[in-house]
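in:
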C-alpha cells in the first residue's frame, strides 16, 4: 500500500542534532524509503545553527502568515532533497534565529508557531499526507491542530514519545494569549491546571508509539509516568513500543573516519584504538588493562549518582575509566576532581566531541550506562556495534537490547542489574571484570556481541505495519 507520510520533529540528522531524537528522525524515514512503499517527507524548523552548506541547497516552497494569538508572524517554507527524500524547513527569524535550539523561556510559543505553520501549510503545498507522524513535545501541538483544523481529509496522526520527562508546559492563560482555537478545545491541552503540549498530542493522536516495548509498559506506572500515567493507561490499547534502530552506515567501525584504526571483528585492531587513546589521555599504555567508558549528558537520568557512590572503590581494581560529557555542575565538578585523584587510571573530558565519542566506543572494552530510566538509548547500540560490552541497568530500551551474559549457557551480550542501587552496580562491574580476566569466557562474550544487530530493518517494518493498519481501518470505516 503506497502512503504519504509527513514526519514533524524539532531536530533531524544530519541537519541539526542535540541527541537521539535527531538520529531517529534522520534514520527512520530513510529506512522506510528502502521499503519503497510511499512518499516520506520530513519537516523541521530552520534554525540559525543549521550550517550554510545545507541552507545553500534550499529552495522556497511557500510563504504564509501564521497567527499566534494577536500576533502575526511570517513562515517561509524551504525544501531540499537529501538521499532521495524531501525535507521541509520552516523559517522565521523571530523564533529560530537564535543560538542553540532549546532552552528559551518562550519555547512553548516557538514550537506552537512551528506546529501551526506546518498544519496551515498543508492547505497550500503540493503534498497531502495520509499520516502525520510527530515526535516529542515540540511537535505535539501539530497533532492536536491537525485534528482541530483537519487540513487533509482523513489524515491520520501518530505521536512518538522519545522522552516523557519533557512535556512543553505553558501557563493556562497562554491559551487565550497564543491559541486561536475555540475555547472548548482547552480540555484536550490542559493537564493539572497547565497547558501541556505532550498531553495534547497524547489526547489527539490516533496512535501513540514510544521507542522500546519495555518503556511502553513502564510509562503506564507512577514511577516512570511523569504524572501522565493515568492518561497513558487509559490509552493503553493505542500505545505500542517499537524499538529504535541504528544507522549502520553512520556507525560503522570498519569505515568510521574518526578512528585511529578501522576494524570489523578483529580484537587486535580494536585494541590498537585503546593503545592510542591511553597515550592520548596519559593513562598507562597496556592493552590488557580493561577500559570502561561513559559517553553521556551529565544529568541525573543517566545514573550518575550511582557512579559517584562507587567510583573511588571500583578504581582500586586494575581498570581504567574515561568519561566524556557535559551537563549539570554537580556531576562536572565530581568527575573533574575524581580524575585529579585518580590521574593514572581515569580521565574526564567535560565537553562533547563527536570524533572523541567514536574513538571511545572503539577503544573501550566496556560501556557504562546505569540509567535511572532510558526510553530506548542509542549509546548501548553504538557500543555493541563497536564491539564494546554494555553494562546497564534493566530499564526501558536497555532491558530490551542488552541480554545479561550467562557464563554457563554461553549466552548474552552484556551485563545488567535490576535495582537502582550503587552496590548492585559495583557488584556487576566486578563481575564484568572477572569475565574479562577469564580469556575463554571473554572470547565467548565477544563472539556473542558480534551477533548483535539493531539495524532499522525490523523496526521500519513494524512502523510500516502500524501505518498500514491505521489506513486499512480508515478504509473499512469509510
Amino acid at each position: 500500500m503506497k502512503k504519504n507520510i509527513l514526519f514533524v520533529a524539532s531536530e533531524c540528522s544530519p541537519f541539526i542534532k542535540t541527541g537521539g531524537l535527531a538520529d531517529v528522525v534522520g534514520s527512520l524515514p530513510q529506512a522506510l524509503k528502502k521499503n519503497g512503499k510511499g512518499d516520506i517527507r520530513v519537516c523541521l524548523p530552520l534554525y540559525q545553527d543549521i550550517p550554510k552548506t545545507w541552507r545553500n541547497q534550499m529552495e522556497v516552497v511557500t510563504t504564509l502568515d501564521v497567527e499566534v494569538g494577536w500576533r502575526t508572524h511570517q513562515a517561509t517554507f524551504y525544501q531540499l532533497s537529501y538521499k532521495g527524500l524531501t525535507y521541509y524547513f520552516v523559517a522565521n527569524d523571530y523564533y529560530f534565529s537564535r543560538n542553540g535550539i532549546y532552552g528559551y523561556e518562550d519555547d512553548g510559543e516557538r514550537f506552537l508557531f512551528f506546529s501551526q505553520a506546518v498544519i496551515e501549510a498543508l492547505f497550500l503545498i503540493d503534498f497531502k499526507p495520509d499520516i502525520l507522524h510527530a515526535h516529542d513535545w515540540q511537535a505535539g501541538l501539530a497533532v492536536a491542530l491537525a485534528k482541530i483544523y483537519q487540513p487533509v481529509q482523513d489524515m491520520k496522526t501518530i505521536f512518538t514519545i522519545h522522552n516523557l520527562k519533557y512535556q512543553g508546559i505553558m501557563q493556562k492563560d497562554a491559551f487565550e494569549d497564543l491559541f486561536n482555537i475555540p475555547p472548548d478545545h482547552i480540555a484536550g491541552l490542559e493537564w493539572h491546571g497547565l497547558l501541556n503540549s505532550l498531553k495534547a498530542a497524547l489526547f489527539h493522536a490516533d496512535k501513540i508509539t514510544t521507542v522500546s516495548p519495555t518503556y511502553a509498559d513502564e510509562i503506564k506506572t507512577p514511577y516512570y509516568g511523569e504524572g501522565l500515567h493515568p492518561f497513558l493507561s487509559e490509552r493503553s490499547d493505542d500505545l505500542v513500543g517499537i524499538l529504535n534502530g541504528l544507522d549502520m552506515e553512520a556507525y560503522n567501525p570498519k569505515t568510521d573516519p574518526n578512528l585511529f584504526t578501522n576494524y570489523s571483528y578483529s580484537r587486535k585492531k580494536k585494541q590498537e584504538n585503546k593503545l592510542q587513546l591511553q597515550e592520548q589521555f596519559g593513562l598507562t599504555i597496556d592493552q590488557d588493562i580493561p577500559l570502561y567508558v561513559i559517553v553521556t549528558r551529565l544529568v541525573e537520568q543517566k545514573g550518575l549518582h550511582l557512579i559517584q557512590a562507587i567510583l573511588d572503590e571500583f578504581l582500586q581494581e586494575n581498570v581504567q575509566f574515561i568519561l566524556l560529557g557535559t551537563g549539570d555542575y554537580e556531576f562536572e565538578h565530581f568527575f573533574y576532581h575524581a580524575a585529579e585523584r585518580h590521574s593514572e587510571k581515569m580521565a574526564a573530558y567535560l565537553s562533547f566531541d563527536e570524533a572523541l565519542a567514536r574513538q571511545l566506543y572503539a577503544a573501550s572494552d566496556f560501556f557504562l550506562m546505569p540509567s535511572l530510566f532510558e526510553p530506548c538509548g542509542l549509546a548501548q547500540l553504538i557500543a555493541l556495534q563497536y564491539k564494546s560490552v554494555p553494562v546497564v541497568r534493566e530499564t526501558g530500551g536497555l532491558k530490551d537490547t542488552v541480554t545479561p551474559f550467562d557464563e554457563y549457557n554461553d549466552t548474552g551480550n552484556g551485563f545488567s542489574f535490576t535495582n537502582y542501587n550503587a552496590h548492585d552496580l559495583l557488584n556487576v562491574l566486578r563481575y564484568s571484570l572477572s569475565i574479562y580476566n577469564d580469556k575463554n569466557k571473554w572470547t565467548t562474550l565477544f563472539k556473542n556481541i558480534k551477533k548483535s544487530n539493531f539495524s532499522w530493518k525490523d523496526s521500519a517494518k513494524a512502523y510500516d505495519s502500524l501505518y498500514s493498519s491505521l489506513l486499512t481501518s480508515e478504509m473499512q470505516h469509510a
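note: The longest helix spans residues 457-477.
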